[in-house]
Amino acid sequence: DKSITVIDAATPGALAWKAQISLDGQPEGFAVDDGRGVFYTNLEDRDRTLTIDVRSRQVTRTWVSGCGEGGPKGLALDHAFDFLFVACGDHVMVLDAGHDGTRLSAINVGDGIDNIDYVESRHELYAAAAHAATLAIAHVDRQGGLTHLATVATVPGARNAVATNEGTAYLTDSSEGKILVVA
Asked: Could you tell me the maximum CA-CA distance found in the chain, to the nearest angstrom?
């Protein structure tokens, strides 16, 4: 319904509706910067990335993602550098979230990206491409530059990598009902 619902989880075991934020498009993905009070989301059908102030629940900035017709997918955040990683269908870009959303770099990883993960302590980005059947791992430097570290063959359909602080990645393989582990 082109909105984000805010749920109150303050009482254990009792989630409660708190608010609804209406948007101009279909939200997809999110990242949260608790320290700065910012919630990031994409508008998949409008090719936009938004910043929302968590206190006022208002959109404060809108950036053209440049992902094209498929729109932006997942998001990840480097809190220390204030970089926002935006996943497109076949690449991931780094935006300067602390300033004006300037595109700092991008890396092609293959077709079929959905959600991504970032391990801040390692400065490593993990992006699984379901159609390409690969997991790409990249390093980000202090200027927001991405450097390819590795590409690991996975299986068709494997996506949504989640990585640990040690660098182990877990990917969903929904066609087989499995979780793939890449150490």
From this structure: 44
